[in-house]
Design a protein that fits this description.
The complex is a heterodimer.
Chain A lengths: L3 H4 L9 H6 L5 E6 L3 E10 L5 E15 L6 E15 L4 E5 L6
Antiparallel strand pairs in A: 1-2, 1-5, 2-3, 3-4
Chain B lengths: L4 H4 L10 H8 L3 H5 L5 E6 L4 E9 L5 E9 L5 E9 L4 E5 L6 H16 L17
Antiparallel strand pairs in B: 1-2, 1-5, 2-3, 3-4
Classes of the chains: A mainly beta, B alpha+beta.
Chain lengths: 102, 134
């Protein structure tokens, strides 16, 4: 999307998977990343590598701790907020509309 | 002579000298990061460490050079570094400063690339891509 005028006429037909992401521009999205990370933010820009610019983003890092005695799995998540973030595409696993509970 | 000597001499000296890098950068969002040269930003690395400093240079492969860096390693220990080179593969996030206008930065970077490309006399008078229509 860096050079829209020359590369891609703004067509409304969905031809390839990246076009589906194009439909989410300026919308809030959910991004699942490697290393148990999730991002929720507004998609401002993306490219073919899935490098993305997300605004008002909340990053959730999930860790699992295993209790030594009971072998119980304790899931912990840490969140942080970043106003504007550039995300390198090779960490992205999937892109989806924000998950709705229920 | 260091190939990067021209662009790292002063912060914010413009476009890379290689055609290949210009083309790669132009077709992806690395141009935005290249427009951040001269800004102080935080780069989060893949291994959970982070580096906050002044961006000296970003190339088409997202390799980043930073100056006057506060480096926070995975364990939380800080280090002050004068100069830091981060390989593109190791970048996870780059925090964009609030005052940066994304569209303007990308457009001005692309304009610089196009200016260099159309500079008469480059490549002995030949255009970079022969007879390409806009």
């Amino acid at each position: 999307m860096a050079d829209e005028a020359e590369q891609q006429p703004s067509t409304n037909t969905v031809e390839e998977p990246l076009d589906l992401i194009r439909l989410s521009l300026d919308e809030r999205i959910y991004v699942k990343m490697r290393n148990d990370r999730e991002l929720r933010g507004r998609l401002h820009a993306y490219d073919q590598h899935l490098n993305m610019i997300l605004g008002d983003v909340e990053e959730t890092v999930t860790t699992v701790e295993i209790d030594e005695e009971t072998y119980e799995e304790l899931y912990k998540s840490t969140k942080r907020n970043i106003p504007m973030l550039f995300v390198r595409g090779d960490g992205v696993v999937l892109v989806a509309p924000p998950l709705r509970v229920g | 002579m260091e190939p990067e000597a021209v662009e790292s001499a002063t912060v914010g000296v413009e476009v890379v000298n290689s055609i290949r890098e210009r083309t790669i950068a132009e077709n992806s969002m690395v141009v935005l990061l290249q427009g951040l040269q001269g800004e102080v930003t935080t780069v989060d690395l893949r291994d959970e460490s982070s580096a906050r400093g002044l961006v000296l240079n970003v190339d088409a492969f997202m390799n980043i050079r930073l100056k006057d860096v506060l480096f926070l390693d995975r364990r939380g220990q800080t280090a002050q570094l004068q100069d830091l080179f981060i390989t593109g593969r190791n970048v996870r996030y780059v925090h964009i400063p609030d005052h940066v206008d994304i569209m303007k930065t990308m457009e001005s970077q692309l304009a610089k690339i196009h200016r260099v490309r159309n500079f008469a006399g480059e490549g002995g008078g030949r255009k970079e891509f022969g007879g390409r229509k806009k």
